[in-house]
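Pilot study result, target chain (157 residues):
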Amino acid sequence: MITEEYLSTPDALAVQPFPAATSADVTGSSGPGHHVRELLAGRDFREEDDDGQTWVEAEAELRACLDDLAAHLTTRWGDAFDVDLGPYLRAGCEGEIVPEPLDHLSQQAVSMQVWPLPDGGRRLALTIGQADKELPLVLSAAVGRFSAFDVTVSSRS
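Predicted structure:
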């Protein structure tokens, strides 16, 4: 199921230099200490009125892709750990500064799988999220400096 295209993006992000300034385009964003890229997007849900069945099917398709990609990455880099993004979303809503890419990801997804990369200074995350209920579900990859993926906030209740 996973094509080289899906594997090549995390590989490229893992070694790509981080820019000095934040930039964004239709495929994602980058900034000091992070990159976020859209790997796969479903269709939007603007015209749907099917009791959520289309959403369930779209999520299952992206989940299968994420699981397959995660299996390949686990073979390379070892087991991932799961991160609950809820505490980051709450912190941002309460006015706290949440580092990127955690701020962006927490506004679209509820959790992510994270792998420490072999260089020791970066982490890679995969997640499925949706910016708005009418927009497509998106499978995203994010790479950040170890400090950009500071997951200590996740220990909050």
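One observation from the pilot: Strands lie at 23-25, 28-31, 34-41, 81-84, 111-116, 122-129, 138-145. A full batch analysis is planned for the follow-on phase.
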